[in-house]
């Protein structure tokens, strides 16, 4: 509370300046009045002295001798009084100008008038504004087409290789068993093998990729030894054994369908490929995955049995 009362009673800087000027004015007034009274008194004494001197005989003789001029020094205000008057007058002038400087508010700055643009400058500015308003990505149709072609080529999705597709489809399976009739060979029955054996050319690429990543076994039911020899000769002529992934010892033959089922169960592959739906149904409980190849898509017998019209179609080669 004491601090607030003291701060409210303290005078502002403007009030202090006003009080100082009032004191200076009173001091100047006092000094001027004393000065004028002293000067008047001295002036009266000087006049009396001049009158008395002019009446004396010496003054008349001096005037006559000098040719009408005054030969005596003029008596006036002393040198000290003139200095005091100058100092007081200068102080008064300084006080007046200081007061006017305090009272006069600052003049507002004059706003500089905008320079009118000439016609040439106006047109150039308009052209620049139009260029600035155009988006930077706007180009000609030819440039857009060329750029789009480059972008499409650069960001074109990479097509997976057949080996990648095979591994993905087989779910990284390491052992595969496959029937020959209707899958690898054009023939579809053991009776046809007695006459001729033809390897399907469209399946060779997929077959070779499977041998690179998996342990592949081929098996089929035949009626005689001659059919077995014909099958091995056809596979060798087609280049199935040239890659080294598949050898003749992994081509198995039997005389019944049950024998093929036994082969599969003994080998315990990750995948088995067959065309007989009955065998696929029987092996569904023992084999992890199966591919049933059939021209007519049958009903799915088990969740781990997949169907396709051909082995190459299953792996996306057609």
UniProtKB/TrEMBL annotation:
Organism domain of life: Eukaryota
Biased composition regions of type Basic residues, renumbered to the chain: 108-117
Gene Ontology BP annotations: peroxisome organization
Protein name (database record): Peroxisome biogenesis protein 22
Coiled-coil segments: none
One Pfam family of this chain: HAD_Pex22
Sorted UniProt keywords: Membrane, Transmembrane, Transmembrane helix
Region (Disordered): 106-142
Keyword Transit peptide in annotation: no
InterPro entries: PEX22 (IPR037485)
Bilayer-crossing regions: 58-78, 84-102
Composition bias, Polar residues: 119-132
Species per Swiss-Prot/TrEMBL record: Thlaspi arvense
């Amino acid at each position: 509370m004491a601090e607030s009362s003291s701060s409210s009673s303290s005078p502002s800087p403007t009030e202090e300046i006003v009080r100082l000027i009032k004191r200076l004015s009173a001091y100047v007034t006092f000094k001027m009045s004393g000065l004028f009274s002293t000067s008047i008194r001295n002036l009266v004494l000087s006049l009396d002295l001049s009158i008395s001197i002019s009446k004396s005989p010496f003054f008349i003789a001096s005037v006559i001798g000098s040719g009408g001029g005054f030969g005596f020094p003029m008596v006036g205000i002393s040198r000290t009084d003139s200095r005091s008057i100058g100092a007081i007058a200068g102080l008064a002038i300084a006080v007046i100008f200081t007061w006017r400087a305090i009272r006069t508010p600052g003049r507002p700055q004059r706003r500089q008038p905008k320079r009118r643009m000439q016609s040439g400058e106006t047109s150039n500015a308009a052209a620049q504004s139009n260029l600035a308003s155009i988006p930077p990505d706007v180009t000609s149709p030819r440039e857009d087409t060329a750029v789009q072609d480059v972008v499409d080529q650069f960001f074109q999705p990479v097509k997976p290789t057949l080996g990648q597709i095979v591994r993905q489809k087989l779910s990284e399976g390491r052992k595969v068993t496959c029937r020959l009739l209707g899958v690898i060979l054009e023939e579809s029955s053991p009776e046809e093998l007695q006459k001729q054996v033809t390897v399907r050319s469209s399946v060779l690429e997929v077959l070779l990729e499977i041998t690179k990543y998996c342990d592949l076994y081929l098996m089929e039911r035949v009626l005689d030894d001659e059919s077995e020899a014909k099958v091995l000769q056809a596979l060798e002529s087609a280049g199935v054994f040239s890659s080294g992934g598949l050898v003749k010892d992994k081509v198995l033959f039997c005389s019944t369908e049950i024998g093929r089922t036994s082969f599969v169960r003994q080998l315990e592959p990750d995948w088995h490929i067959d065309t007989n739906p009955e065998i696929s149904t029987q092996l569904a409980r023992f084999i992890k995955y199966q591919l049933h190849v059939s021209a007519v898509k049958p009903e799915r017998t088990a969740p781990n049995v997949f169907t396709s019209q051909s082995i190459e179609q299953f792996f996306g080669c057609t």
